[in-house]
Amino acid sequence: MNDLFNSFMNAPDEKGRFGIFGGRFVSETLMPLILQLEEEYERARTDESFWAEMDDLWTHYVGRPSPLYFAERLTEHLGGAKIYLKRDELNHTGAHKINNVLGQILLARRMGKSRIIAETGAGQHGVATATVCARFGLKCVVYMGAHDVERQAPNVFRMRLLGAEVIPVTSGRGTLKDAMNDALRDWVTNVRDTFYCIGTVAGPHPYPAMVRDFQSIIGKEAKAQMQEAEGRLPDTLVAAIGGGSNAMGLFHPFLDDESVRIIGVEAGGKGVDEKMQHCASLTGGRPGVLHGNRTYLLQDDDGQILEGFSISAGLDYPGIGPEHAWLHETGRAEYVAITDAEALEAFQLCCATEGIIPALEPSHALAHVMKIAPELPADHLICMNMCGRGDKDIFTVARHLGFEMGSGA
Amino acid sequence: MTRIERRFAELSQAGRKAFVAYIMAGDPDRDTSAAVLKGLPDAGVDVIELGIPFTDPMADGPTIQAAGQRALEAGMTLAGVLDMVREFRRGDDITPIVLMGYYNPIHAMGVDRFLDAAKDAGADGLIVVDLPPEEDEELCLPAQAAGLNFIRLATPTTDDARLPKVLQNTSGFVYYVSITGITGAAAAQAADVAPEVARIKTGTNLPVVVGFGIRTPEAAREIASVADGAVVGSAIVKLIGEGRNPEEVLAFVAGLAGGAHRA
Fold first, then answer.
1. Among A266, A276, B138, B246, which is 20 to 30 Å from A229 by CA?
2. With an 8 Å Cβ cutoff, are B152 and A27 in contact?
3. Residues 6+ apart with CB under 8 A from A346
């Protein structure tokens, strides 16, 4: 069993595969860049000075470590397992996204790239990228689906304040996947000076492994903090999944710990059924190839990609990181789906019991905690990743709750 | 010998350059698209590239993407594309057809099933944009084993160290992408292309055709004069997108072919 568990930490292989998932499915123009990135990342990863710079920025710029917080009233309210929240919503820019962006921007600087491009859905990754680019004086271009530009207006303004150029994407259907297509088109056109800062654990190798490594700070901290608080490992980890970077960051340091149950929560939208109004790639999709990797995708019988649907713009992606696809197939992690309505209920409960306004993404994780915690004993430890704060979502939530906000958004 | 290999052998013997034309299967609908396809050989097209529509064509510009969307909206599928090839073959058994697209629709059909069906329909080669040599085991090697050419793209970022890897499992011809960018973007200059074609030819005896950014008969002539042929896609697809009828489209294609053949 030990050997099997060791193998979870050794992925991906030299071809960038997690089992059959992952890989390098990109056009020839990009292939030399991907190989160069892999080489540079390998050099940085084993260079102490790279991590020393990261640590310094994590501490003084981002505000790490984020607290591991015992949610006492929530625990009481649900009447079962003891619930801890990993407070990554307290990071600078309000979400876990900046953990990864810092790593990639430091890498871009090492590679001498002067122009950074990124895709964004809800705008959190775009804001984090614009922030770090401002911090280092780099040119920043963010591709964002036209529909998302409209529903996430505050984040668009933030990015512009931070000096980024936000390009509304109207190609295809103008959503997150189309923003990623356009970012790839930009990259293929501006190969010499441009670094593509991907926001999640997807894309061609080495992105899934690299983004995971940068986000793993979440799980490493949580492990040490839980040890300090309870003197042992948590029993269950819960995190929300769009592409899956916050979840991979929490899960990865625990993959070897057999006793830890790992649960990823996908966006079930209006329900995971034949109407496909959801973003639950693992629960409702099947393996395919998109954006540089093989993974589970929402697609029709002809292999055409379907649009995701969720109340949360941050989960609105028809694929999922390849490592999650592999953890799903091997059974090491479980994946469930939560509907918009359940997430909205959890959002409100968190506000009322803990005085924390969560983003809609972790509200999905919390909704699953609400389902399982009451059935578990009082000494069962749940660690949930509160990966983002809800400021960006209050307009969406107000609309769903029938609250008139005026013209604020 | 595939139809592709035979065609290039004949062209070489005749001292002629190849004109390669791309259209998207099913754009704007099956019948119109089939009528254009059928007329391409008489318009002077030596090799046909038939696009497989895909929702997320990451290496293509807006023109080809819109064509794919039109085709999908009109109900085109990968099986439908193969059906068009089969129909074309009833009237033309010599003009090579290269299917060009992205991997996921093929992945969804299943590689073995796809290769059998493509061979059976009368396709001769494949260009799959998101399958670099690093992923040769996925489709390239099985395709060659099934007797289909697998045509690789070489690009300005393919440096000398990498070139042998790109050429290794390529067959039929090499498609040199003349710019770093997407289809339909900036125009290529023959002066920049010539040394690149020469560089590729040091590593292979295969014909090298050049595409991306060619829009006019004169540009087709200039590029073809420094290579074994020229490819035009977006400029043709743009006319189809403007609603021109097959006769008008084919007249434009004939002009481009004339340009390439004057080289």
1. A266
2. no
3. A338, A358, A363, A364, A366, A367, A369, A370
Positions of B annotated as catalytic residues are 49, 60
Cβ-Cβ contacts under 8 Å between A and B: the total is 120
CB-CB contact of A203 with A291 (8 Å): yes
Residue A204: asked if its preceding bond is cis (omega within 30°), the reply is no
Answer for the pair A278, A269: CB distance below 8 angstroms, yes or no.
yes
User: H/E element holding B210?
Assistant: strand B208-211
Chain B residue at shortest CA distance from A299: B108
Residue A363, C-beta contacts closer than 8 angstroms, at least 6 positions apart: A240, A312, A343, A344, A346, A347, A350, A390
- Is residue A145 within 8 Å of A118, Cβ to Cβ? no
Dmax (CA) for chain A in angstroms is: 59
Contact B108 A301 (CB under 8 A): yes
Give me the torsion for CA of A184, A185, A189, A195, rounded to 10°. -20
Amino acid at A108: A
What is the model's pTM? 0.96
Domains, chain B, with CATH or none: 3-257 (3.20.20.70)
A277 touches chain B (CB under 8 A): no
Phi, psi of A240 (to 5 degrees): -80, 155
- Determine the residue type at A344: L
Which residues of chain A does B155 touch, with a Cβ-Cβ cutoff of 8 Å? 27-29
CB atoms B177 and A28 under 8 Å: yes
* pLDDT tens digit sequence for A125-179: 999 999 999 999 999 999 999 988 987 888 999 999 999 999 999 988 888 999 9
Residue B72 contacts A where some CB pair is shorter than 8 Å = yes
Q: Report how far residue A339's alpha carbon sits from residue A279's, in angstroms, rounded to the nearest whole number.
A: 10
Residues of B in contact with A325 (CB under 8 A): none
CB contact under 8 A, A181 and B106: no
Q: What is the mean pLDDT of each run of 10 residues along chain B (263 residues)?
A: 97 98 98 98 98 96 96 98 98 98 98 98 98 97 98 94 96 94 82 95 97 94 97 97 98 98 95
Q: How far apart are CA A180 and CA A297, in angstroms?
A: 15
Task: Bin A291: left if φ > 0, else alpha if -120 < ψ < 50, else beta.
Answer: left
Strand pairing of A292-297 and A286-290?
antiparallel
Record: contact B134-A15, CB cut-off 8 A? yes
Q: What is the pLDDT of residues B128-161, one digit of tens each?
A: 999 999 999 999 999 999 999 999 999 999 999 9
ipTM value for the complex:
0.95
- Which residues are within 8 A (CB) of A358 and not within 5 positions of it... i.e. 6 or more apart? A89, A346, A347, A350, A351, A366, A386, A388, A389, A390
Please report where in the chains the tokens 């299967």 appear, as a residue: B25
